[in-house]
Write a structure and sequence with these properties.
Elements: H1 7-23, H2 26-33, H3 40-53, H4 71-83, H5 91-104, H6 107-118, E1 124-127, E2 143-147, E3 150-157, E4 168-174, E5 185-191, E6 197-203, E7 209-222, E8 226-227, H7 233-248, H8 251-270, H9 276-308, H10 316-339, H11 347-353, H12 358-369, H13 380-392
Parallel strand pairs: 1-4
Antiparallel strand pairs: 2-3, 3-7, 4-5, 5-8, 6-7
Helix pairs in contact: 1-4, 4-8, 5-6, 5-7, 7-10, 8-9, 8-10, 9-10, 10-12, 10-13
């Protein structure tokens, strides 16, 4: 939908679309279309192509490599990236820690980290969730005790995505337990090579290894690696998570998947693999998802318009997170339905029975791994509480 984009914005869309079409390597495009696992090197390679173009970190301040794009241009850029089947890069680098350092970091931290973050010279992970402190993040217990020019950290993080690849972690730790649980939390930057850090893999039901447990045993972190003031980490975390939640909606990605789903449905029907009744049922479900996606897009565009006038998204970010992740999960359910029993086969069975149809092999793993999107970034149940408090005053 063009929805009142200006002539300049439409010209910008054409420029972005042309760049993605020409610059994205064919092997990466194929991996994305077939839902195959991207290696770390794949993401780094694409990020550096974007960085060479000056588009690696468009949401950052201009002085640190960002683009002076309008909210509408940022929206167009994200949508076109998804429609081009381009990898999203590392969200921990680009959308989370980079903007936080740019906004709250010291000059020394900005000089040390920002250029390396943009180019993925350093790979970052997020040390927030703990056993018993996931959605209730403020209940975290990992302890950091001041010892001269260092903090000494003891505790555990869990569900730490891509910690096995990470050079650095941004983490929330407790430095004071005397006040409310949101107080006394401090935001630290941890070198993952520091003695006392142990990373243990968590293999998920789809057979992948993306999540990890991370343990800290007397880990010493220099005070100079603290973001902002001691005890104000909760404020910095809220700034970080507000951007994460609106990004989790991934409307462009869902639009791209809807296009693929419609193409799959047509292909299966033409090959006689769907009965008339099955096709009618699937087409109805696809239409229902499209209606919901268009409604969500209008909400996103209202947020874009508000942003352009300096207004805060507020509870709209939570609404985008809730509905966006629900639609993403609906998409995976429909893919699995199209795959049928073959989508639940073992790897060997799938390769024998669905040669050349990688989407069938990927259907079940894709379905299972997408169960997490309604949990990370703040569980949808928590987001509903945020919306209720904002609108109804509960």
């Amino acid at each position: 939908m063009d929805l009142d984009f200006t002539a300049e914005e439409l010209a910008f869309r054409d420029e972005v679309r042309s760049f993605f079409r020409e610059a994205l390597p064919d092997d990466l495009r194929a991996k994305m279309i077939e839902r195959r696992h991207l290696e770390k090197d794949d993401i780094v390679r694409w990020q550096r192509i974007l960085n060479a173009r000056g588009w690696a970190v468009p949401n950052w301040p201009v002085e640190y490599g960002g683009q002076a794009w309008s909210p509408a241009q940022r929206y167009i850029y994200q949508e076109e990236m998804a429609l081009a089947h381009a990898p999203e890069g590392s969200p921990f680098n680009i959308n989370m820690i980079g903007p936080i350092i740019a906004r709250f970091g010291t000059d020394a931290q900005k000089d040390r980290f920002l250029a390396r973050i943009a180019n993925l010279d350093d790979w970052w992970c997020q040390g927030f969730s703990e056993p018993g402190a996931g959605s209730d993040l403020a209940a975290l217990k990992t302890r950091a005790t001041r010892d001269g020019d260092d903090y000494v950290i003891n505790g555990q993080k869990i569900w730490t995505t891509q910690a096995q690849h990470a050079d650095w972690m941004f983490a929330l730790v407790r430095t004071d337990s005397s006040g409310r649980k949101q107080q006394g939390i401090t935001f630290l930057l941890l070198d993952m090579k520091t003695p006392g850090i142990t990373v243990r893999p968590i293999e998920t039901i789809d057979g992948g290894h993306d999540a990890n447990e991370v343990f800290f045993d007397d880990v010493r972190v220099p005070v100079e690696n603290r973001i902002g003031e001691e005890g104000r980490g909760w404020d910095y975390a809220k700034a970080l998570l507000g951007g994460e939640r609106s990004g989790i909606a991934r409307i462009g990605l869902s639009k791209e998947r809807l296009i693929q789903l419609r193409a799959l449905e047509r292909d299966l029907a033409e090959r006689g693999m769907l009965t008339g009744r099955e096709r009618d049922r699937l087409r109805r479900k696809l239409a229902e998802v499209e209606v919901e996606l268009r409604a969500l897009e209008l909400t996103q565009l209202r947020v874009v318009a508000a942003d352009a006038h300096g207004a805060h998204a507020g509870h709209a970010a939570s609404i985008l997170k809730i509905k966006g992740t629900e639609i993403q999960q609906r998409m995976t359910e429909l893919v699995l339905e199209l795959a049928g029993p073959a989508g639940l086969a073992t790897d060997a069975q799938a390769q024998a029975n669905t040669a050349g149809e990688g989407w069938v092999e990927a259907a079940a793993p894709f379905y299972f791994t997408m169960r997490k999107v309604s949990i990370f970034g703040g569980a949808n149940e928590i987001q509903r509480n945020i919306v209720a408090k904002s609108i109804l005053g509960f």
